[in-house]
Design goal:
Layout (H helix, E strand, L loop, with lengths): L10 E6 L4 H16 L8 E6 L5 H15 L7 H8 L2 E5 L8 H7 L5 E6 L6 H10 L7 E6 L6 H12 L7 E4 L6 H11 L13 E9 L8 H26 L8 H14 L8 E7 L7 H5 L9 E7 L9 E7 L6 E8 L17 E7 L3 E9 L8 E9 H4 L10 H11 L8 H21 L4 E4 L6 H8 L11
Helix pairs in contact: 1-2, 1-12, 6-13, 8-9, 8-13, 9-13
Length: about 475
């Protein structure tokens, strides 16, 4: 199966912080792959802006090394690299002064999309937005791209939104969450709204509960200062897991339109009940054969920052009343796995007797690794006397079902950066959506701070703290396994 690549309109993409880790590891490799795919028009150009004393040749050398490291070998060739670098420029610029801004202005083309990617810390968002306007760099097709964190709490998120809104309209602001660019995350909407098989059953009458798991084997190396201030609740639950929850729980939008989709996501967040203290578990990985413990990594023997969160959430609306949503995420776990499990209720009556056992359907949507969808169905066990039942998976691995191209799908940043150029905000968070997510998250964090809660220790390389298992067992349920 070969997909058709549709070229985008001519554009200038300015990457502030172009020499930084994110630009070198994610943004530039994504742009290179889109260039190789033929999605760039001839007039397109990238301009990296940073404080480093580099010239164009020096920056090209940096980019070449980054692409060699972060782009698969099969996507690399000398001709493509040469063509790409011809469209890459560099400007030495200071976000806090007027140095370099006139040089940048002279490199921008006319009558084309201008996208400004803020690959810098949030403290520079305001100064950058102000200087883009002050130096006349904005036009009617200007977009700005900002990375998370979108604030540290509700107050800071509101302040950030107000700062950006002072210079740009909401339709020009692209808050990027790379999880929404993943192919399988987008497939959540296709599975739900493109299949009559599922949507009639997608409610509390038929669904027993839903689990959302984002497990990571990595720790926090290189992010110690940020993570100690944020923790798993702010770093993962407030944004990534919240977005997955919205996509799995939202009502069908009237059409596949950016604001229609985001309106429905916002309704889900606003319908979330406050999490009860006994419905949340915090954990912190300890040291062992897998490596040092969290407190050793951050060099704080009294740290109470969580590296793991599991919680039970409820959505008080007509569709989901009474159906629990279990969310969990953690660092240094036994396996890397992002999966959504929809567990359906048992049949109301079994005609096969007690010896057949209890059986329920389950839909598993694997986001990473080995992206795909599995539907567990019940059949007769072959070759046995009587009517004995067994659960078997109907498994669709995207790599097997969709052919060789699906084994090398576009990276999340490839899709999202090109959506910025297209002007499509469907997969980007809106300002009121961010604030609503913080309004739900802040009381949870304030609650455990007021109670003096301390995270439960768990072994690196495990499935997390034992209390997370008890969270499910109290409800007569169990986590679907994180498989090594």
């Amino acid at each position: 199966m070969v997909s058709r690549v549709i070229p985008v309109d001519p554009f200038d993409l300015v990457i502030f912080g172009g020499t930084g880790d994110l630009a070198q590891r994610k943004i530039l490799p994504a742009l290179f792959r889109r260039y190789c795919a033929g999605q760039w028009p001839d007039e397109a150009q990238i301009i990296a802006a940073a404080r480093g004393e580099l010239d164009r040749a020096g920056f090209h050398q940096m980019v070449s090394e980054s692409l060699h490291q972060h782009v698969p070998n099969r996507s690399q060739n000398a001709e493509a690299l040469s063509g790409f670098l011809q469209r890459v420029d560099y400007v030495r610029l200071d976000a806090l002064t007027d140095e370099g801004w006139s040089t940048l202005a002279g490199k921008l083309g006319r009558d084309r999309v201008r996208a400004f990617y803020f690959s810098v810390g949030p403290r520079l968002f305001g100064p950058l937005a102000e200087r883009i306007k002050a130096h006349g760099l904005a036009n009617l097709q200007t977009r700005i791209v900002v990375e998370k964190p979108f604030g540290h709490d509700l107050d800071s998120a509101r302040a950030l939104n107000a700062t950006l809104a002072a210079h740009f309209a909401e339709g020009q602001i692209y808050r990027i969450d790379h999880y929404l660019g993943k192919e399988t995350v987008q497939n959540l909407m296709a599975v739900r709204f493109g299949n009559m098989l599922f949507e009639p059953l997608w409610n509390s009458q038929y669904v027993d509960h839903i689990q959302i798991t984002v497990a990571e084997t990595v720790g926090i190396d290189g992010r110690e200062d940020y993570y100690e201030r944020a923790g798993a609740m702010r770093d993962m639950v407030q944004n990534h897991l919240m977005q997955l929850l919205c996509l799995i729980a939202m009502e069908p939008p009237a059409k596949f339109d950016p604001d229609a989709v985001r309106d429905e996501k916002l309704k889900v967040i606003r319908a979330l009940d406050r999490v009860e203290p006994h419905h949340i578990v915090r954990g912190q990985f300890s040291g062992g054969p897998e490596g040092p413990g969290y407190r050793d990594v951050v060099d704080n023997p009294r740290s109470t920052t969580e590296s793991y969160v599991a919680l039970r959430a409820h959505i008080s609306n007509w569709r989901w009343a009474g159906t629990p949503f279990y969310l969990r995420t953690g660092k240094r776990l036994v396996a890397r796995s992002s999966v959504i499990n929809v567990l359906f209720k048992d049949a109301p009556h079994s005609i096969f007797g007690e010896e057949a056992g209890r059986h329920a359907n389950a839909l598993s949507i694997r986001l990473q690794p080995n992206e795909g969808i599995t539907l567990k169905v019940t059949i007769k066990e072959p070759g046995q006397g009587g009517m004995r039942l067994v659960d078997v998976p109907l498994d669709m691995s995207f790599a097997e079902a969709l052919g060789p191209e699906s084994q090398d799908p576009p990276d999340a940043y490839e899709r999202l950066v090109m959506d910025v150029i297209r002007g499509n905000q469907t997969l980007f968070m809106r300002g009121d959506e961010v604030e609503a997510a913080w309004a739900w998250t802040d009381p949870v964090i304030a609650g455990w701070q007021a109670r003096g809660d301390v995270p439960k220790p768990y072994d690196s390389g495990s499935t997390g703290p034992g209390d997370a298992e008890l969270l499910m067992k109290r409800d007569g349920r169990h986590w679907q396994g994180i498989k090594p």
